[in-house]
Write a structure and sequence with these properties.
Blueprint lengths: L5 E3 L5 H34 L5 H25 L5 H21 L5 H12 L3 H10 L3 H10 L3 H19 L2 H22 L1 H7 E3 L8 H10 L2 H7 L6 H26 L3 H30 L2 H23 L3 H30 L5 H30 L1 H14 L1 H20 L3
Antiparallel strand pairs: 1-2
Length: about 425
């Protein structure tokens, strides 16, 4: 039986684990800078007549399709090759796509930005694998929570850097600048992880004495996505899809909802949208605290966060009819709760199940499913608002949050046993 070409050993000291986490944090935050810069300059590109509204939107759609597809592909590939090499390649190639957006003709922009989505997807699955297989066990869960801070920090830096460069130059400069940031992050990753690679990457061995039955058992054990199916936890796909629909669906439509219901300025609604990622980060830390100190079960914790979202969404129509600050608070609590759920599904569960293999694939697959839910919700909310008004949207959000609770309740006990079994297999 031939195992994967390279396997990962676990680091043993706190300093080594912290170094690996900080390098992963920097790499993933840099990836956000080369992701949201297009949204920041899209208005300038359209105003110059380089792209039409429809073609600009199609470029974003192409990005998300390739990003979701790339999560699954990268999850599979990163189980077979070095995660260090994969993250470097993802950052460097994404930087190259940003350079291409700056100087190549507009006709190739859709292809370039779609390719950027695929290359960006090469960063997250190998990070999850490194967390699962290389971080000291005592640092794993904290790292899974703290990595969530890359989302608001990377988003704000992307928009801030884009705004600064747009104020002094053209939109081309934004892509040049963000490409340089990505390339610098790739070089930092390559140099910074060199000592860690020698400690964690070891040659796999050939074992010709393993029976066919043991080979099948080993394959199942190292593919946690199959483990979920075999143990009856496949129903978790329902809350995974629904939390993606709420997390990104609510956030995407907050500006339009505020402008429609409160007649606020676009600047105010945009400011709320920029603050939401910072507020949402509290959801990740709240999920970690609830799991460690009260529930000791990730699925029970996720279920409680969905209950919180149900309560806030139930109160939202009344707040929208009379009070802007309360409505903003309720929306903030909803999206924060969903980021907490996201941390559990995309970070914590894959790392726990994949401590000895399979974490990258599981996280990539769940992340792709999350984005599918987000894409469907983004379109569905717009259609519902057009046909039936915003009250219908609030009801739809409430029903989605409610529908996620039952599968979590049914799977919580089984998950407890599966997590305990995974802990017993700690390498």
């Amino acid at each position: 039986m031939k195992l994967q070409d390279r396997t990962c050993a676990r680091l043993h000291t706190y300093v080594q684990g912290r170094t690996l986490f900080l390098l992963c944090w920097t790499a993933y935050a840099a990836a956000y800078i080369g992701r949201y810069n297009y949204s920041a300059v899209m208005g300038a590109i359209i105003s110059e007549g380089v792209l039409s509204l429809s073609s600009a939107g199609a470029i974003s759609t192409g990005y998300f399709i390739l990003y979701a597809t790339g999560q699954i592909v990268s999850g599979l590939i990163s189980q077979k090759i070095s995660p260090y090499t994969m993250i470097f390649a993802g950052l460097a190639l994404s930087g190259g796509c940003n350079f291409g957006m700056a100087w190549l003709p507009s006709g190739v922009m859709p292809l370039l930005w779609a390719a950027n989505g695929f290359f960006q997807a090469m960063v997250w699955p190998p990070i999850v694998r490194l967390f699962a297989e290389c971080l000291p066990l005592a640092q794993q869960k904290k790292a899974c929570v703290n990595i969530s801070s890359t989302t608001p920090v990377g988003t704000l830096i992307s928009y801030g850097l884009s705004a600064i460069l747009l104020s002094v130059a053209t939109w081309h400069t934004v892509f040049w600048g963000c490409g340089i940031v990505l390339l610098a992050a790739a070089i930092l990753w390559l140099l910074g992880t060199a000592p860690l690679r020698s400690l964690t990457e070891i040659p796999a061995l050939m074992d010709h004495e393993v029976t066919r039955q043991n080979c099948v058992a080993e394959e199942k054990r190292q593919n946690p996505f199959l483990v979920l199916a075999y143990t009856g936890l496949f129903w978790l796909i329902v809350p995974v899809v629904l939390h993606g629909a709420l997390k990104d669906g609510v956030t995407s439509w907050v500006p339009s909802m505020l402008q429609s219901n409160f007649a606020v300025s676009p600047a105010f609604s945009a400011a709320v949208s920029m603050v939401l990622p910072l507020v949402n980060l509290s959801g990740a830390f709240a999920a970690n605290w609830l799991d460690r100190h009260i529930f000791h079960n990730e699925l029970k914790t996720a279920g409680v966060l969905f209950v919180v979202a149900c309560m806030t969404l139930l109160a939202l129509p009344g707040a929208v009819s009379c009070n802007l600050p309360i409505a903003v608070v309720l929306l903030s609590v909803t999206t924060a709760a969903m980021l907490g759920v996201n941390t559990i599904f995309i970070n914590v569960i894959p790392v726990q199940l994949g401590r000895d293999g399979g974490a990258a694939f599981l996280s990539g697959a769940l992340n792709a499913i999350t984005y599918a839910g987000a894409a469907a919700a983004t379109w569905g909310v717009g259609a519902a608002a057009d046909f039936w008004g915003w009250n219908a949207v609030f009801v739809l959000w409430f029903l989605m949050a409610t529908a996620a609770i039952l599968p979590l309740a049914l799977c919580a006990k089984r998950w407890s046993g599966l997590a305990a079994e995974a802990s017993e297999r700690r390498p």
